[in-house]
Amino acid sequence: MKVTLKRLDDRFGMQVTNESGHSFVMDSMPEVGANSKGMRPMEVVLAALGGCSTIDVIDILKKQRQQPQSVDVTVEGQRADEQVPKVFTQIQVHFAITGKVKMEKAAAAVQLSMEKYCSVIKMLEKTAKITGTFSVNGESH
């Protein structure tokens, strides 16, 4: 697995590309002189966690013969204020699932992803308390 980063401007903008040719722009915040034309690195970390876990949840639900129509995920992270580096100390993940999905099947899928399968969660839980919640067709668990 490999990604390459190419600087796009005289500031902090970078084009990130993987071996398959898929790419996105990463940048920093205006307060440090950046153009803010892309996701910040720590936002990419939260996105990676959300993507990793969502893939798990969808895969597990399908194996359970459930029929998710949509799985929308919100990931929020809090970072350490008083230390450098400013690692994540808390991360909350919420899965909003719709479709023909039983509540207990969704609970099992989310739990398996959060506790066993998501590699990104396993790396980040060394510094952050990570919690997950979910809803199925608007009904919260």
The CATH topology of the largest domain is given as GMP Synthetase, Chain A, domain 3
* CATH second-level architecture of the largest domain: 2-Layer Sandwich
Number of domains: 2
Would you count the extended β strands for me? 7
Enumerate the strands of the largest sheet in spatial order, edge to edge or round the barrel: 4-5-6-7
Could you describe the 3D structure shown?
A four-stranded mixed sheet has the order 4-5-6-7, covered by helices on one side. A three-stranded antiparallel sheet has the order 1-2-3, with no helix packed on it. The model has no long low-confidence stretch (mean pLDDT 97). The protein folds into two domains: 3-32, no CATH class; 41-140, K homology (KH) domain (GMP Synthetase, Chain A, domain 3). The longest helix is centred in the middle third of the chain and has 23 residues, at 41-63. Helix 1 (41-63) crosses helix 2 (103-117). By secondary structure, the chain is α+β, with helices and mostly antiparallel strands. 31% of the residues lie in helices and 35% in strands. The chain starts with a strand and ends with a strand.
